[in-house]
Amino acid sequence: MTKLAVITPTHGPDAELFADLHRSVLKHTSDETVHHVIISPAWTSIFAKYAGPRCRIWTYNELLPKYYIRLAPYPLWVNSRRPWPPVRGWVMQQTLKIALSARLDVDAVLIADSDVVLVRPTSAASFTVDGRLCLHREEKGVTSDMERHVMWHRVSRELLGLPPAPPPPLTDYVTAMNFWVPATVRAMQRRMAETTGRHWLDAFNSRLHISEFMLYGVFVDEVLGQTTKPPPSNTTICHKNWQRTPLDHEGAVAFADRLGPEAVAMMISAKSETPWDVRQTAIRRCAEITG
Question: Whole-model pTM?
């Protein structure tokens, strides 16, 4: 069994970002690690050049049942047999992460969006303690003013058949890059089906607002945690910039200089609209820091 796979959902407008990520995956993961890329069929011509021994391109229709009908290349989808509204592109990307993670025959998957870049050698072993893969878990990270995160907690508990959450602060499991255990993802799918009486795909996509990372974290800690000790926490995997405003060159260098000694990746949010050359400044500075 291969130890690690990398999964990235992406689309045409992020092709330039993806190129940086893919180069870093080839450089910083083992030769047996495959980068699995999820795209709409509309973007096949853009990403087909990456296909090879270390890159597998998946289109939506390979991962979803045939009754999911695509209305547009991005971002709206609808289920032709169900009465609920079109699925937002962001939710569909989450769905596809879950679907592919459960399908792969590996020990661990590394979920990395297009705006992530690996900056150090990366393996599941680096984030495994006593044979257990670490979980991104920020205790008391969700405060009462974080309405979406509070809602994601509520929805996760409903899908998993758990009692309502206590008042904030709550644990935050949301991050830019995360390790998952495929066997755990499959168990999470079964739990959603058992709780809701529906296929997990229908149960998940019936929710307008949901977070796959919150769902996975709550499942690990509060469902599996009922019978086994929760895995250790690690929040150092990725050095992140969530700001919605562009960085300049000085800001990019300052950001890179804060790279922690255990971080294997950096992320400057695509929503910041940081210029490409400024991102390159941060990537080069991280390379200097890591040697």
Answer: 0.92
